[in-house]
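Data availability excerpt. The first of two example chains:
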Amino acid sequence: VQLQASGGGLVQAGDSLRLSCAASGRTSRTMGWFRQAPGKEREFVGVSRFSTGTTYYADSVKGRFTISRDNAKNTVYLQMNSLNPEDTADYYCAASTSTIILSAIRSRASYDYWGQGTQVTVSS
């Protein structure tokens, strides 16, 4: 699976931004996003489990971020609203072609494929 992420940029607090992740190759079962702020570990943001149509979000973004999917384009989106400076990070698209058990859905180790990061900077 090859993943191509795009859509990052510099925005002000309160603004919105939409990231895209275009996938090619094998069919993924779960796709989503992680992020890594400077000096911090890469953390879970949210993912979509395609078999059930269920999405899972980190508490820090719940209610502000939304993951959607365009099947025709094989692309997953991350709509980010009400951005704040704490959202500043490199955002990485991730995918798995295997079934991930629910208890591991937020773990980086569950995802076999990663896109390049796209940088999001939110100024105050």
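And the second chain:
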Amino acid sequence: VQLQASGGGAVQTGGSLRLSCAASAHTFGQYTVGWFRQAPGKEREFVAAIRASGGTTYYGDAVKGRFTIIRDRARGTLYLQMDSLKPEDTSVYYCAAGTVITSTLRDPQRYGYWGQGTQVTVSS
């Protein structure tokens, strides 16, 4: 499984960004895929995930209602649409894939495949 994240950048408070994660073939059919973020000195934090079967989505409390995870099977790309951005969303964002169950999908240690991070900076 190969994952490649892109789309980070700098934006002002209230702005929007869309992150992309290109995935190798069959990833979406076999694995739960998601986004995590990690700020300096902090633990890696769950942002959003989508299950391989059924496409159920899950969100971290900090981003619920502002971020949307989108899976485009035809393009083999996972997106994270981020709206109403806040300074506390500043972080390095990672896409990930793994065989996880619902009770553990917020645990980054359960994901076996990771893309490189992409920096998101939100200024006030």
